[in-house]
Design a protein that fits this description.
The protein has about 150 residues and is of the alpha+beta class. It is built from 5 helices and 7 strands, in the order βαααβββαβαββ. It has 2 domains: about 100 residues, 3-Layer(aba) Sandwich (Aminopeptidase), CATH 3.40.630.30; about 45 residues, no CATH class. The protein has a 7-stranded mixed sheet with strand order 1-2-3-4-5-7-6, with helices on both faces. The relative contact order is 0.15. Pfam families: Acetyltransf_1. This is GNAT family N-acetyltransferase.
Length: about 150
């Protein structure tokens, strides 16, 4: 089944939050899904929609340094391994470039091996940065030129 890439709405975010386990399993990621991101950065918050609902999404923005920052990218449990994450990423990269981005960036915990595998497979460079999220809180910082 193919999906339609389109801009995220507040109604979409409500549905994503209601269906959070389908995207994140046991991890409760609601605290990072901020409604102002949809309101203020709606041109770079994307859903992959289909007749059976939202199959995946990406929330991001372009900062003042012309970096397209990927805040969240997630695919529904029944769409993993279909290339949907790559398609969402490509749509975000296109949109971010249209807004002047010259590179992309994403951050994850050092223990998130799935995120590491995904981002490095699609061409990101990875660097572990000590204390990135505060004292003793290392993070993997992914970067890629557009």
């Amino acid at each position: 089944m193919t999906e339609n890439m389109r801009l995220m709405t507040v109604a979409d975010l409500n549905q994503i939050i209601a269906d959070m386990p389908r995207y994140w399993g046991e991890r409760d990621m609601r605290q990072g899904h901020h409604y102002p991101l949809v309101h203020e950065f709606g041109q770079t918050c994307i859903v992959a929609d289909s007749p059976d609902g939202i199959r995946g999404y990406l929330m991001g923005w372009v900062n003042h340094d012309h970096v397209g920052y990927i805040h969240f990218i997630a695919t529904r449990d029944d769409t993993r391994g279909t290339g949907l994450g790559r398609r969402l990423h490509a749509e975000f990269a296109r949109s971010a470039a249209e807004q002047g981005a010259t590179s992309l960036k994403a951050i994850t915990a050092v223990t998130n091996t799935g995120s590491f595998a995904f981002h490095t497979t699609i061409g990101f460079q990875a660097e572990t940065v000590e204390d990135y999220a505060g004292p003793g809180q290392a993070r993997v910082v992914f970067t890629r030129d557009l």
